Amino acid sequence: MLFLFRFLLVLLLCLGAQAAAAQESSIEVLEAPRGPSSGETMPEQEGSPAPPPPCGTQQMTIARMQWPTAALLAEIHSRILAQIFGCDVRIQEGDLAATGSSMGATGQPAIAPEMWISRIAEIWNAAINSQKVRQAGTSYLEPVFEGWFVPDFAVAAWPGIATIEGLKQRAAELVPGHEPRFVSCPADWGCSVINRNLLRANGLDTLFEIIEPANRFELDTLIAEAVSRKEPILFYYWQPNAILAQFAFKSVDLGAYNKDAFQCMGRKSCAAPAPTGFAPDPVVIALGEWVYLDAPQVAAYFQRAKMPFAEMNAMLQQLSQTGETVESVVDSFIASRGSVWRPWAGLPIEQPQDTQSPQ
User: Which of 57, 243, 253, 298 is the most exposed place for a label (fewest CB within 10 A)?
Assistant: First the structure.
């Protein structure tokens, strides 16, 4: 089942890669609103009515999508809203299209913690225009989900290879007598075309042997085997993902994202690819409009609730272990990672207690 979840996430990330270049012009990506209905805490005025209850007057329904990251986020937010805000929360199974349509029509479910809006651009734009749904903020702290990586041990042995210039200068040293390997994604995924063009754009296509595995399982196997042999490979991957928590890697600095350059990257016929970073992907927390009006404290919470990739990577790695479930992983996160989630709720970070006896 976990493999199926991962496979669904791969489809979301990679099958849409060739369309990434056009996403900025086709999707409504709005700045978080400000003012009395934005979730901000406004100064109380004498004679003003009592503030609404923290959770408003409707049930807080949270959409839990089918893939692991979305399920984890739904359960995390459910627990925090129930335990900290005292909300009546209900988890509702959903998918991108159905959830986006429902929120645009009725404002329910109230919360969708991980909406890949570039995958449902028409539905999302219609939902925004209906004024029944708002974008509270981004689901993750980092905006770019794809990248190139090198193992930590390789960076320690060949300083500088986490940059393009460093890779150019030291490629011949990595595997003496042979071209080092660049492990890309399967040839039928859009990212394989992007990776080939990025290698050309950065003058690395003649310095690395390009390996395109048959499937996701082979991709993970190639990376794990190379790490076990201490082979200094360069590889493509995406976040959040368990394998980046299982091993220690450094991301390669590809430079700033250039929209015009990236538009060419998904084309096999790209004549003159130019350097660029990967495109950011708009993955947002969607809230029913009524949440802003009826439960501004909850709206403010979601404007702050940006999950770091490293935290989600670690949870996915834990979830891959025998006996673990989404619920058990979330319980562990809530119990041990207050330094991450307590600021979302406007709470101070608890200091560890001193267990030593007083002198």
Answer: 57
Angle, helix 216-228 to helix 2-10, in steps of 10 degrees? 100
Tokens of 352: 């560890």
Q: What's the rounded Cα separation, in Å, for the pair 257 and 144?
A: 9
Contact between 121 and 293 under an 8 Å Cβ cutoff? The reply is: no
The whole-angstrom separation of Cα 291 and Cα 178 is 59
Per-range mean pLDDT, top range of 32-46, 53-67, 68-82: 68-82
SS3 64: strand
- Residue in 156, 178, 158 with CA at minimum distance from that of residue 170: 158
Report the predicted TM-score, pTM, of the whole model to 2 decimal places.
0.83
Of 8-12, 139-143, 250-254, give the lowest mean pLDDT range.
8-12
Beta bridge partners of 249: 151
- Compute the distance between CA of residue 203 and CA of residue 230 in angstroms, rounded to an integer: 25
Q: Rounded to an integer, what distance in angstroms lies between the CA atom of residue 306 and that of residue 341?
A: 9
User: From 2.30.30.40, 3.30.200.20, 3.40.640.10, 3.40.190.100, which CATH number describes the 146-265 domain?
Assistant: 3.40.190.100
Q: Read out DSSP for 209-232? A: EEE--SSHHHHHHHHHHHHHTT--
Q: Map residue 176 onto helix, strand or coil.
A: coil
